[in-house]
What does this fold into?
Amino acid sequence: MWERIKGLWQQQDHPELARSEQEQQTDLDFLSQELQAQRLDGLEQQLRPLTTSKFRPVAQRAERMLGLVWFHQRKYTKALPIFEDLARQTNSLNDWFNVVTSATLGGEIARGAGAFERALERQRSQADEASADAAAQPSIAMLHYFYACALRDAQAYEQAFEQLQILRTLFEKLSKGSDPERLHLRGLPSLEQLLELMVDVLSQSDSTSEAAGWVQAFGGKLDNAFQEPVQQAVVQLLQTASNDSAPS
It folds into this structure.
């Protein structure tokens, strides 16, 4: 009885909650377009009532979108608990990775690392199950790449370098005999993406010359088709060190 009374009160206060599940999903479709276009003003107020929908798929989707609104507004500490709650409910890879990025960018590095392990576990289990969703999910390599980017943006360079070492091993193994233009078919970031990340992270090391040697050694493990961009990255890394040491 009490839940029924509560529901009636909510419907009077928020007429949209009296609509059918399909109608509420249609409302979310529109709000999703606004979110994708980064038109964030007023979205929080429109999403909040739908997070209390009696239809669980609607409520979960609205919560996820509300978390994404806060994420795009860089309110990571507000987004994090929503994503954690959703991840515990759904155990979906995307929800766990939302925890990873919001925790990491919010400075909760250890919390993000724990969620990243959960995301990897979920990705592996989906691959083992050969589920229909598995093919649409990011590969192991792309998860490490996106995580490394978040760590770089959080200025957690040492942890980002740990991910780079994993990416280097995966790239050396999976890129053999591949056309650089088609690396995505093997679940890898492009070489340009990886090298840009390497330069960003390694330019923060204590010894840029040693870091350049690390990139050079990486290139030595790759086919000839990959050598030119690797050498360009080495030059860029050394130039970064030279610019940083120049007197102002």
Observations:
- The CA atoms of residues 157 and 201 lie 6 Å apart.
